Amino acid sequence: MTGSAFSTGLARGTAALGTALLDLLYPPRCAACGEGLGSSAEEPFCVICARAVDPVPAGCRSCGLPGIDALCGACLSNPPSFTACHAGGLFGGPLADAIHALKYRDRPALARPLGAWLAGRVSLPQNSAIVPVPLGRKRRLARGYDQAALLARALAKAKGLPILPLALARTRETKPQVGRTRADRLRNVRGAFRAVPAIRDRDVVLLDDVVTTGATADACAEALVLAGARSVRVLALARTE
Ligand SMILES: [Zn+2]
Ligand SMILES: [Zn+2]
C-alpha cells in the first residue's frame, strides 16, 4: 500500500469510526416524527412518514405549478429564465416538518439524509453542476449554516455531480419572501444575485429547500444565464401548491 493510499484508507477508517461513534451518541431519528431509525440508516424518514410524503402532481412544463397542462398563465406572460422546476415532494406533513427542523431548529445534520433522499427521487442530466441558492449574509450568520449549500453538497455526492458552491452571490440583502404576493416576491429579489464567469456554458441544477412561486429561483436563474450558463433547471426538496 502506498503512503497516500494508506493515509486515504486511514482517513476513511477514521471517518467511518466518527460516523459510527456519532450514530452511537446520536442514533439516527426520523426527521419528522423523531422515531428511531436504527443505526447506519441513510433515510431521513421512518417508514410511516416516508409514505406520508405527497408526490408533486404533474404541472406547468416550465415552473412546475401543479395541476396545469402545458404552461401556466404566469409562465406564458413572463417566461422564467429556468427551463424546468422539480421537487422531491409537496410541501406539507413530514416533509414540511423535516425542512422546518433543518432551517429553524438547528439541525444541519439533516441535510445529508435529505439530500440523499432527494437524489433518489430525481434524475439529473449528466455533466450538470449543482449550484445552491445562496442564503443572505445576515440569515447565514444568525443560523450559523446555509441549509441549501449543505443540501447541495449531499445531493452532489449522492449523484456524483460537481458542486459550484460559490457560483452565485447576493448583491444585496432581500426581505423574507414569506407572506408576499408573486409580484411582490419578484420585485423583492429582482437583480439581487450575481453569478461568477466560471458558470459559462455549464448546465446548472439550481438547488433550494422550498420553491413557492419560483421568484427567487428565477432571479438566480436570470443571473446564471446572464453570466453565460447554457441552461438552468430548478430543484427543491419541496414545492408549495
Ligand atoms: Zn417518522
Ligand atoms: Zn408556470
Helix/strand class: alpha/beta
* Cα shape: globular
Mean pLDDT, rounded to whole units? 88
N→C terminal distance: 55 Å
What is the CATH fold-level name? Rossmann fold
Provide keyphrases for this structure.
241 residues, Rossmann fold, 39% helix, 15% strand, binds zinc ion
Write a structural description.
There is one protein chain. This protein is 39% helix and 15% strand. With 241 residues, it is α/β, with parallel strands linked by helices. It has a single domain (57-239), classed as Rossmann fold (3-Layer(aba) Sandwich). The chain has a four-stranded parallel sheet, sandwiched between helices. Strands 3-4 form a two-stranded antiparallel sheet. Helix 5 (111-119) crosses helix 7 (147-159) and helix 8 runs parallel beside helix 9 (215-226). It is globular, with a radius of gyration of 19 Å. The protein binds zinc ion (ZN) (2 copies). One zinc ion binds next to helix 3. One zinc ion binds next to helix 2.
Summarize the structure in short:
By secondary structure, the chain is α/β, with parallel strands linked by helices. It has helices at residues 3-25, 47-51, 73-77, 93-104, 111-119, 137-143, 147-159, 182-189, 215-226; strands spanning 84-90, 129-132, 168-170, 193-195, 203-211, 231-239.
